[in-house]
Structure formats: C-alpha cells, structure tokens
Design a protein that fits this description.
Number of strands: 4
Radius of gyration: 17 Å
Order of helices and strands: EHEEHHEHHH
Largest sheet: 4 strands, antiparallel
Distance between the termini: 19 Å
Helix content: 25-40%
Oligomer: single chain
C-alpha cells in the first residue's frame, strides 16, 4: 500500500483530514445521515474527483485520507457539507439544533458541521501508512468497538476484502496497535 507520486498542495497530493460536527454533537450517525453523506461524496466526485485512501465516520467527527490532483480541496469540502445538510433538511431530518443561524445556513453548514476542518499534507510513505491506520483504528480508540472491523462506517472492511489494506489489519485492536506503532519510532 504505497503512495504514488507524492506532490505538494499546489499540485495536489495525499491529505489527511479531520472534520467535526458542530459543537462536537453526535450528528454524524444514523442511516439518514450516512445516506445523505455518501450521496454528497458521490456528487462531489463527479465535478471534483478525488480518491479515498481511508475514511471513518464517528458520531461527532470523521477522519479521512484523500488523493487530490489539484488545489480545490476547500471546494470539495464545502460541496460535501452543503449537499449533506440540504438533503437532510429536504427529508425533514434536520432537528431544531440544525436550523439555528441564518449565516450558517447560507454557507450550507446549518449547525450540522463545524465551519472548518483540519488538513495535513502527507509527506512520505510512513506518514501515509500511519494516517490510514489511524483512520481505521479510531473507533477502537474512542471505545465504540473492541476490533476496528466491527465498526460499520469505515473503509476498513471494504478495502480489506478488495486487498487494498493488508490482511493483518482485520485484527486492529488496542494491543495490536501498540505492537504496530512500536515499529514506527
């Protein structure tokens, strides 16, 4: 699982992101959210393509690693956030907490999303592997599951079955990860 042609921001490259729910509330859960979110990603990829190396969605935040070939990352996130929020509002699944400020609605965020996100340019193979592994491990870290494979909102299961992730990642848990990260000093 290696990186291909790592490039810097202005040319595109590999990126790690953390995106949080507004006020870290557990808005990122349930089938309505996941369906709207997946559709928003698919729509965004049609006009602003990117490759997904890893993704995990937890109730109040998410992490992902993308390969992007241009400098339009903010456009992608705005579109994903906006489309998700609009779809949820159209289906009546937007709670009172999601309808608060006019300015937030105008930006397409409602109060579903924190307005910004954390972004890190991945600089080498080691960072790439560690950030992808971090995405997979996150549900274990936060105590949602004992084995990462049990978390349904992650690329882990699908990418293991396709051979994109190493087979030993099927056993990601707290003790396994200590052993793996012990090798990355």
């Amino acid at each position: 699982m290696g990186m291909r042609n790592v490039r810097r921001y202005f040319e595109g490259g590999y990126y790690f992101f953390t995106v949080t729910a507004y006020r870290r509330r557990p808005f990122f859960q349930g089938e309505a959210f996941m369906q709207a979110f997946r559709n928003a990603i698919r729509e965004t990829m049609k006009t602003h393509p990117f490759e997904i190396e890893a993704w995990v969605v937890l109730p109040d935040h998410m992490h992902c690693v993308w390969i992007v070939n241009d400098d339009q990352i903010p456009v992608r996130w705005r579109k994903i956030k906006s489309l998700t929020t609009k779809t949820l509002a159209q289906h009546g699944n937007q709670s009172k907490a999601h309808r608060n400020s006019t300015a937030r609605r105008r930006r397409g965020n409602g109060s579903l999303w924190h307005h910004s996100y954390y972004e890190h340019t991945i600089r080498n193979e080691r960072e790439h592997e560690l950030y992808v592994l971090y995405c997979c491990y996150n549900p274990v870290k936060h105590g949602y599951v004992e084995n990462a494979l049990a978390w349904p909102y992650s690329t882990l299961r699908r990418y293991l079955s396709s051979g994109k992730y190493p087979p030993e990642w099927a056993h990601i848990n707290s003790s396994w990860l200590d052993d793996v990260f012990g090798n990355h000093e």
